[in-house]
């Protein structure tokens, strides 16, 4: 038998053997091993083709054609089996990871606006409805804006009422939002009317307890125009109290002292306790803007007058929501905060 005939028969026999074995393969690993056995660099097909060197130039193309047919037949079965394994693995994974689309969805936890922010937003809405605009200023403030421009010169005894966090000799964490009023007056350049509220955080050296904190929030209000009177201040605060606490709310003004207003008063509102008792509770301080403050802000006190008020946001929130300890606002206790997510 000639060499070429032997090689052709050997290739056909190899094809029959490989196809029979490949059809019975059961795992991807077995398939990979058989690929190496028959088609690898040292595989059976490669060993047969190495003998082509003994053939003549005319015989090699004949054997090469048969070898290519055998290789293609083997690779076709290998590829088909591999696709079957991939498909089976995918189906198995899909079955294991099956999702029941009829199940109800899991609710995502939702946060809420902090009660302090809720009260600030409500207060802003009330005063914006009265024609006020919102002004802001730095929390690290100069001594001039925090004290001197508000009729509190150096060594003034009233400075002791606001024990301060000084950063340098002339820079401190603001003790009230009144400095923003001075900045708003300067920005107005003596032109009226001026109606602003100034919300923000303030800082004082104080021991934390149920009613005090070293950081808290205020909203200052300022109105300047010709002919502004104390009755305008009272009417404004009565309107605010009724929109914040209810139409039956009443207010009363008690004489007080603040260096930046003259005359000065403290304001109480009526509050109904759980047992139905109606009492008075202090909520803010206010008064007519002191002529020196008007002058420092660039307004002629002979022409213009004005009123100012300062409201403690925490005090309003405590009354509005019946909270008994200011520290709840800053404790980050989810049990407390979740109560306000639906309000």
Low-confidence stretches: none
Name the quaternary structure.
Answer: single chain
The total of beta strands comes to 10
Largest sheet: 7 strands, mixed
Q: What does the radius of gyration come to? A: 44 Å
Query: Class of the largest domain in CATH?
Result: Alpha Beta
Structural class: alpha+beta
Q: How would you characterize the overall build of this protein?
A:
This protein has 343 residues and is an alpha+beta fold. The protein folds into 2 domains: 3-96; 115-340, Bira Bifunctional Protein, Domain 2 (BirA Bifunctional Protein, domain 2, 2-Layer Sandwich). It contains 11 helices and 10 strands. The strands form 2 sheets. Strands 1-5-6-10-9-8-7 form a 7-stranded mixed beta sheet, with helices on both faces. A hairpin with a 5-residue loop joins strand 8 and strand 9 (278-289). Helix 1 runs parallel beside helix 4 (59-96) and helix 5 (115-129) crosses helix 10 (313-321). The termini are far apart. The mean pLDDT is 85. One of its GO terms (cellular component) is cytoplasm. InterPro entries: aa-tRNA-synth_II, aa-tRNA-synth_II/BPL/LPL, Phe-tRNA-synth_IIc_asu, Phe-tRNA_ligase_II_N, Phe_tRNA_ligase_alpha1_bac, Phenylalanyl-tRNA_Synthase, tRNA-bd_arm. It is found in: Cytoplasm. Tetramer of two alpha and two beta subunits. Keywords: Aminoacyl-tRNA synthetase, ATP-binding, Cytoplasm, Ligase, Magnesium, Metal-binding, Nucleotide-binding, Protein biosynthesis.
């Amino acid at each position: 038998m000639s060499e070429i005939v032997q090689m052709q028969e050997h290739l056909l026999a190899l094809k029959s053997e490989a196809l029979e074995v490949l059809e019975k393969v059961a795992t991807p690993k077995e398939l990979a091993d058989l690929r190496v056995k028959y088609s690898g660099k040292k595989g059976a097909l490669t060993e047969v083709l190495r003998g082509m060197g003994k053939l003549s130039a005319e015989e090699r193309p004949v054997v090469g054609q048969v070898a290519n047919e055998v290789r293609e037949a083997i690779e076709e079965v290998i590829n088909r089996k591999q696709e079957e394994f991939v498909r089976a693995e995918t189906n198995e994974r899909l079955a294991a990871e099956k999702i029941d689309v009829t199940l109800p969805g899991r609710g995502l936890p939702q946060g809420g606006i902090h009660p302090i922010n809720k009260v600030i937003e409500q207060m802003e809405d009330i005063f914006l409805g009265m024609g006020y605009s919102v002004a802001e200023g730095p929390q690290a403030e100069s001594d001039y804006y925090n004290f001197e421009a508000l009729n509190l010169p150096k060594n003034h005894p009233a400075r002791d009422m606001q024990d301060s966090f000084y950063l340098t000799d002339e820079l401190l964490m603001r003790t009230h939002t009144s400095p923003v009023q001075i900045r708003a007056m300067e920005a107005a350049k003596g032109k009226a009317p001026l109606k602003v509220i100034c919300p923000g955080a303030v800082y004082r050296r104080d021991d934390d307890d149920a009613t005090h904190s070293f950081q808290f929030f205020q909203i200052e209000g300022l109105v300047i125009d010709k002919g502004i009177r104390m009755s305008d201040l009272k009417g404004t605060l009565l309107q605010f109290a009724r929109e914040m606490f209810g139409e039956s709310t009443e207010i009363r003004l008690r004489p007080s002292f603040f260096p930046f207003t003259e005359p000065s008063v403290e304001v109480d509102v009526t509050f109904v306790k759980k047992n139905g008792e109606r009492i008075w509770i202090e909520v803010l301080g206010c008064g007519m803007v002191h002529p020196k403050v008007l002058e420092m802000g660039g307004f002629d006190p002979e022409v213009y007058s004005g009123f100012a008020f300062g409201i403690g946001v925490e005090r309003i929130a405590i009354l509005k929501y019946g909270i008994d300890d200011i520290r709840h606002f800053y404790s980050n206790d989810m049990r407390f905060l979740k109560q306000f997510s639906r309000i």
